[in-house]
Amino acid sequence: MPRTKKADANAPATTNTIKKxxxxxxxxxxxPTAAEMKEFYEKNKRRIENFNAANDALTNFRDxxxxxxxxxxxxxxxEDLRSYxxxxxxxxxxxxxxxxxxxxxxxxxxxxIAYNANMFCLDARTVIPDYDLVEDNDKDAMVKSYNDxxxxxxxxxxxxxxxxxxMTCFREDVFYGCYYFNPESDGKTxxxxxPLPADYCRISGVYTDTxxxxxxxxxxxxxxxxDLLDLWGEPFVSMYNKSQQSGESKWQPIGEQGVCLKFHAExxxxxxxxxxxxxxxxxxxxxxxxxxxxxxxxxxxxxIWMELETLSGADDVNEWKVDPDLVLPYWQRMxxxxxxxxxxxxxxxxKINQISFDSDKATDTNKVENATKTVLNTSGGAQxxxxxxxxxxxxxxxxxxxxxxxxxxxxxxxxxxxVNRIISYxxxxxxxxxxxxxxxxxxxxxxxxxLKDNTYGLAPKLLxxxxxxFSERETLSLHFLENECLNLNFVPVQSSHTTxxxxxxxxxxxxxxxxxxxxxxxxxxDKKDKAKx
Length: 533
Fold this sequence. Notes:
Number of helices: 18
Order of helices and strands: HHHHHEHHEEEEHHEEHEHEEHHHEHHHH
Structural class: mainly alpha
Distance between the termini: 77 Å
Shape: elongated
Radius of gyration: 35 Å
Number of strands: 11
């Protein structure tokens, strides 16, 4: 069970009033008294309620028997976009819906968002216990802090849960969510973040101790989604009940279970899609693709007609060579049974002819391709999605570094603040979790630099294996298993990382005895001796 007192979820969410309160339990006897048990429950009442509610919320987020649609996406055009951008603040909902529409409609836009969201590498981290340069440091307390932090951290499926939040951020600028966490669960990932409807949420302030955003939610959302209120449980039940009280606002702060990320962190009032400057080009690209589709249909379209000829020299225009009543049955049979799709037919006084709507298909295809390149290049990055425009490894690496900084510079510090804030609710004396500012594309280069630092004994060993995809506890566990339990004390391959430079024999590659040297080895040594002579 969590060991800290939970802050009031209904406390005002302002930029300078939200604070976390810790409750360090005093040592209790093995059999607590009734008064002690009552005191414990009262102090942790809200945490226990959320703990129980989380067990249901982790498996039930909606009533699947109902066909209610929670997200509506409409068609948009360039005229709509121009009017929205003229007044961004009052068109937050319209711009968000337009971005959602293009997210599902345009594969280029989806890939651009997914490319940036997948930049984050949350297993590239280091966990740092508190250390005092002046006072004596308690070794046991430091190890306990480190161990307790790792236990909670391993229960949080950070890479997956925050990836969903990042996708939303790059699509809509801001993500609102509520986390549910049961650290006492035997499961591997008892941590989940429930996305909340952005149209009903607003940023209200920051936590003064961590700096990440807080927000309020409009409880009118549950008037038409009452079934979700029953499924989601706390803190929404308490928030909704309070909003129904006289004099209370319908906008209620979500409290410490809230998770809020914003890409444009420099302006928390204005909500605008990250790639708003590309939306017009994306609409143009979709229009061009539709035009190309019409051109492709015209490419195979044909029209045939039959000309009913008249007798030469006839005075009456109705003096036909063949009686129309005789022709029409054959014509109808041909039209109904012989003509393929994309072929039309007509009857005129004359011979049978055809007309085609040919076009320069290669030119039209190049138009779509060039427009796609323009969108990707105009995005200010993502050149890897348009790999034909990259020439050489130097240009590629530079593009990747630029894209990495664009993607993670704002959101990674917010993620770090949120993770440390959540851990502080479950660990009495938590260690600090620090995420390394690298992406999945720059991780290998960063790891190479760390290994070089190992030559001088500068790099933390746990950080190196974190970059290999193993958590700190997994690394320590495998090390203990191999060395203490299985006695797998293999001698590593000699390198600058395993060879000592202290001048003694420790770490120096051992010398083979004479009887261990092969005949080829002896001949080689004799040659060297003769050369020296």
